[in-house]
């Protein structure tokens, strides 16, 4: 199965994706890691390069029968559609999951206080998060990380997935 996560920077996508991947033994594909590795090797990442690499790795792992968690902002329909196409090409099911933080003050605090966990990765400012292009999404599952520990968000996502 392909779990397609999306959401603005700082809402908790990677934390949820990591927790879920540990619990279910899934492959975790993080666009930030892929894009930074490309930058570190001298590639100018100014468009879909990181996503294109992730689509290929996801497709390989789905063909092996693994569950893949795609962790990215996934801000526009073109990226969302491309993830769905990966699942269709491999004959695997997909679930679109939007991670949100409904408490604006908490979201801002997270963005302003977090530190990069990828060497060389520059995190966006709060203003950059607010100004970022992000198209509305009709994701199958919405997980709100506001006001709860990460374990609760991962548990809520597991329950949603079990119900599908």
Fill in the keyword field for this structure.
15% strand; Rossmann fold; 164 residues; single chain; alpha/beta; five-stranded parallel beta sheet; 7 helices
Describe this protein's structure.
- The protein is built from seven helices and five strands, in the order E-H-E-H-H-E-H-E-H-H-E-H.
- The protein has 164 residues and is of the alpha/beta class.
- It has a five-stranded parallel sheet with strand order 2-3-1-4-5, with helices on both faces.
- 32% of the residues are buried.
The number of distinct structural domains comes to 1
The Rg value, from CA coordinates, equals: 15 Å
Tally of helical runs: 7
Strand order of the largest sheet: 2-3-1-4-5
Main pleated-sheet profile: 5 strands, parallel
* Global outline: globular
Strand content: 5-15%
CATH class: Alpha Beta
Low-confidence stretches: none
How many angstroms does the end-to-end distance come to?
12 Å
By CATH's scheme, which homologous superfamily applies? Answer: P-loop containing nucleotide triphosphate hydrolases
What's the mean pLDDT score? 96
Task: Chart the SSEs and their pairings.
Blueprint: E1 2-6, H1 13-24, E2 27-30, H2 31-40, H3 49-63, E3 68-71, H4 77-90, E4 94-100, H5 104-113, H6 126-131, E5 141-144, H7 150-162
Parallel strand pairs: 1-3, 1-4, 2-3, 4-5
Helix pairs in contact: 1-7, 2-3, 3-4
Brief write-up:
The protein contains seven helices and five strands; from the N terminus they run βαβααβαβααβα. It has 164 residues and is of the alpha/beta class. The longest helix has 15 residues, at 49-63.
């Amino acid at each position: 199965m392909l779990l397609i996560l999306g959401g603005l920077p700082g809402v908790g996508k990677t934390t949820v994706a990591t927790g879920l991947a540990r619990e279910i033994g899934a492959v975790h594909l993080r666009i930030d890691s892929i894009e930074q590795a490309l930058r570190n090797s001298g590639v100018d990442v100014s468009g879909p390069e990181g996503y294109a690499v992730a689509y290929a790795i996801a497709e390989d792992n789905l063909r092996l029968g693994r569950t893949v968690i795609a962790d990215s902002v996934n801000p526009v329909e073109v990226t969302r559609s491309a993830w769905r196409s990966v699942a269709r090409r491999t004959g695997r099911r997909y679930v679109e999951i939007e991670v949100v933080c409904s408490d604006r003050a908490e979201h801002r605090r997270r963005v302003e206080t977090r530190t990069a966990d990828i060497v060389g990765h520059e995190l966006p400012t709060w203003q950059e998060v607010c100004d970022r292009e992000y198209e509305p999404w009709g994701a199958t599952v919405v997980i709100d990380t506001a006001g709860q520990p990460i374990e609760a968000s991962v548990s809520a996502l597991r329950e949603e997935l079990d119900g599908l």
